[in-house]
């Protein structure tokens, strides 16, 4: 795990870096996985369903912030990161599709906890590598963009993360 880059935007000493904002979001989503996993292992499929649904929504919001704010800014200023951003994009598609299937599998009168557990493990494994790559090599690059661009990205990404439906809030 990377250290957070030093140097918050000069005009606001309280502001956090993009790396700090999005890494915190990663950790919060990790916590939801633990909740879902515990509910599954304890034989509470309805609770597991709720937790997985929440993970899906939190990840959707997180990914939207990356697609709408972070990746376009990097693609513009750092064409050398194009292949990395493309790979991250493909991971996102996998996470959302696999989690949607798991949520669906836990719904209704005959839930399928075994499939949900397998799906969740596959997502968690790929997500760990994905998050490490973002935290070590992608977010810090966004924080280092010249001028006020890093501060703008951080502000816009934080605003995107705040757009959570109330039932999925932190
Ligand atoms: Fe991502
Ligand atoms: Fe991320």
What's the total count of β strands?
A: 0
* CATH architecture designation: Up-down Bundle
The helix content, as a percent range, equals: over 70%
What is the residue-averaged pLDDT?
Answer: 89
DSSP strand content: under 5%
- What ligand species are in this complex? fe (ii) ion
Q: Please tell me the total number of domains.
A: 1
CATH class wording? Mainly Alpha
Contiguous uncertain segments of 5+ residues: 1-10
Q: Which class of secondary structure composition applies to the elements?
A: mainly alpha
Integer-rounded radius of gyration:
17 Å
What's the CATH superfamily, by name? nmb1532 protein domain like
Number of contiguous helices: 5
Describe this structure in words.
- The chain is mostly helical.
- Helix content is 74%, strand content 0%.
- The protein contains 5 helices and no strands.
- The structure holds fe (ii) ion (2 copies).
- The site of one fe (ii) ion has 6 residues, from helix 2, helix 3 and helix 4.
- Residues 22, 26, 62, 66, 131, 134 line the site of one fe (ii) ion.
Give a short synopsis of this structure.
With 170 residues, the protein is mainly alpha-helical. It is built from 5 helices and no strands.
């Amino acid at each position: 795990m990377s250290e957070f880059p030093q140097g918050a935007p000069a005009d606001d000493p309280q502001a956090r870096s993009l790396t700090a904002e999005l890494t915190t979001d990663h950790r919060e989503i990790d916590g939801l996985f633990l909740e879902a996993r515990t509910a599954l292992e304890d034989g509470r499929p309805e609770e597991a369903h709720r937790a997985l649904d929440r993970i899906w929504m939190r990840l959707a919001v997180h990914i939207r912030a990356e697609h709408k704010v972070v990746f376009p800014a990097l693609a513009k200023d750092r064409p050398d990161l194009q292949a990395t951003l493309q790979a991250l994009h493909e991971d996102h598609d996998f996470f959302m599709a696999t989690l949607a299937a798991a949520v669906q599998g836990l719904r209704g009168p005959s839930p399928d906890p075994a499939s949900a557990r397998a799906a969740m493990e596959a997502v968690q494994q790929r997500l760990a590598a994905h998050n490490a790559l973002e935290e070590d090599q992608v977010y810090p690059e966004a924080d280092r963009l010249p001028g006020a661009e890093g501060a703008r990205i951080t502000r816009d990404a934080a605003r995107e993360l705040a757009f959570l439906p109330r039932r999925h809030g932190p």
